[in-house]
From TrEMBL:
Associates with the 50S ribosomal subunit. The gene is der. Belongs to the TRAFAC class TrmE-Era-EngA-EngB-Septin-like GTPase superfamily. EngA (Der) GTPase family. Transmembrane segments: none annotated. GTP 2 binds at residues 187-194, 234-238, 299-302. It comes from Massilia horti. Keywords: GTP-binding, Nucleotide-binding, Repeat, Ribosome biogenesis. This is GTPase Der. Residues 369-393 are annotated as: Disordered. SMART domains: AAA (SM00382). Residues 3-167, 181-354 form the EngA-type G domain. GO terms for biological process: ribosome biogenesis. GO terms for molecular function: GTP binding; ribosome binding. The keyword GTP-binding applies. GTP 1 binds at residues 9-16, 56-60, 119-122.
């Protein structure tokens, strides 16, 4: 499971700046699709080979009893409860404030591992910028400049070391062939996730034991259908050592993100008997950002009149336009209908995500696409696409090589994506198109 780092601090200390820096590389992966709401408070980051989740929290007023500040305090508590390590940011230019002390008291009570970080420290001496913060009693401060990036990689590496040091050794893992496709079922509260898990797994359901003093990570529940092995990822709740305090809300974004990132295929459950909500769109956004293969399960299909069914289908297609690459399966977890098609869609999405696409086939498909419709000229030059190769799997990345490719427009990229998707039957997986303009071998080397 990916370690979770929460960024906490009073307003304006640079939390968002640090958050953006940590998650920036991921940002480019999802184009701004119409209708897709993205949650800017949760993100994935990576230093070197080490992935992690990061939570940005709003300005924090631990004593607020009502209003927006109270709401934000609740969110911060939730973030702290779910974090492995809290990065507590203070402002090196402004110096220590009473508010910093209040936050320190709160963090100390939380029992979490806290790293004190002095931001905005570019161009300043370690001793002078940190001196007054020793008073907080949180040990040697780390100094960074979120805006310039100084000290950020060291900070994250240290945070990850701390996170791993606290974790119990992972439970014994099953052999890959026994696991089959790993599936996460995600969705907002009450859509029927537990019901679907029970329908899929039946008597094989493994009840996780919940001993005080242990950390319960994701639970893997193996099951079989039609002689095929699958594994359900069930992050059934995370309780930390010492049980200092529990997560406040029942729905946990962290839990959802963890299961998505452990899975090969995600089933996004929607409730056909309720309107599609903002929360559904948020969860869909997380799945898209992860690049995982996807099946949309429209649950509670039982008990709907056929006119209602048409209405629901239209509504989902309109509001979740950006999920049109995935199959929509209409099912009833309760009655057990639609389960066969659901699992076939899972297999299909997995196959698409892991498809191997050879350079000649890709290049042929590219040529066909260009023949049907050429990219527009930009500033007198027409982008010239020469060949395509596969740059990655799961999700498939198609790298197109050529010249003047900066001029290729977003709509044309989407056109290409659709063409590749149709040609290779890539249903249920996001697809990434990368354009690479070749260097002119005759140009002089520049330093
Ligand atoms: N000099 C300097 N300024 C910084 C640095 N990091 C952030 N800032 C500035 O500090 C201000 C606040 O940064 P934000 O990232 O919005 O701070 P925040 O903690 O997320 O603020 P809230 O969203 O209000 O909670 C901005 O004007 C940033 O440009 C830094 O490393 N050095
Ligand atoms: N009519 C109908 N009701 C269903 C179906 N699936 C689940 N339900 C009902 O919806 C309610 C919520 O189901 P759960 O399986 O607990 O939902 P969940 O998504 O696990 O909920 P949380 O634990 O809150 O996240 C229960 O009352 C179920 O009986 C279905 O296919 N049809």
């Amino acid at each position: 499971m990916k370690p979770v780092i929460a960024l906490v601090g009073r307003p304006n200390v640079g939390k968002s700046t640090l958050f953006n820096r940590l998650t920036r590389s991921r940002d480019a992966l999802v184009a701004d699709l119409p209708g897709l709401t993205r949650d800017r408070h949760y993100g994935e980051g990576r230093v070197g080979e080490r992935p992690f989740l990061v939570i940005d929290t709003g300005g924090f007023e631990p004593v607020a009893k009502e209003g927006i500040m109270h709401e934000m305090a609740l969110q911060t508590r939730q973030a702290v409860a779910e974090a492995d390590v809290v990065v507590f940011i203070v402002d090196g230019r402004q110096g220590l404030t009473p508010h910093d002390k209040t936050i320190t008291d709160f963090l100390r009570k939380s029992g979490r591992k806290v790293m004190l970080v002095v931001n905005k420290s570019e161009g300043m001496k370690y001793t002078s910028v940190t001196a007054e913060f020793y008073e907080l009693g949180l040990g040697d401060p780390y100094v960074i400049s979120a805006a310039h990036g100084d000290g950020v990689a060291d900070l994250v590496n240290e945070a990850l070391d701390q996170a791993f040091a606290q974790r119990p050794a992972d439970a014994e893992e099953l052999e890959p062939q026994e696991r089959g496709v790993k599936i996460a079922i995600v969705g907002r509260p009450n859509v029927g996730k537990s019901t679907l898990i029970n329908t899929l797994v039946g008597e094989q359901r493994v009840i996780a034991f919940d001993m005080p003093g242990t950390t319960r990570d994701s639970i893997e529940v193996p099951f079989e259908r039609g002689n095929k092995h699958y594994t359900l990822i069930d992050t059934a709740g995370i309780r930390r050592r010492g049980k200092v305090f529990e997560a406040i809300e029942k729905f946990s974004v962290v839990k959802t993100l963890q299961s998505i990132s452990e899975a090969n295929v995600v089933i996004l459950l929607l409730d056909a008997q309720q309107d599609i909500s903002e929360q559904d769109a948020h969860i869909a956004g997380f799945i898209l950002e992860s690049g995982r293969a996807l099946v949309v399960g429209v649950n509670k299909w039982d008990g709907l009149e056929s006119s209602d069914r048409d209405q629901v289908k239209t509504d989902i297609d309109r509001k979740m336009d950006f999920l049109s690459f995935a199959r929509h399966i209409y099912l009833s977890a309760l009655k057990g209908t639609g389960i066969g098609p659901l699992m076939r869609a899972v297999d299909e999405a997995y196959a698409a995500a892991t498809a191997k696409l050879s350079t000649p086939r890709l290049t042929r498909a590219l040529e066909e696409a260009v023949e049907k419709q050429e990219p527009k000229r930009k500033g007198g030059t027409r982008p010239k696409m020469r060949y395509a190769h596969q740059g990655g799997q799961n999700p498939p990345v198609i790298v197109i090589h050529g010249n003047a490719l900066e001029g290729v427009t977003e709509p044309y990229k989407r056109y290409l994506e659709k063409h590749f998707r149709d040609t290779f039957d890539l249903i249920g997986t996001p697809l990434r198109i990368e354009l690479r303009t070749g260097k002119n071998p005759f140009a002089k080397a520049q330093n």
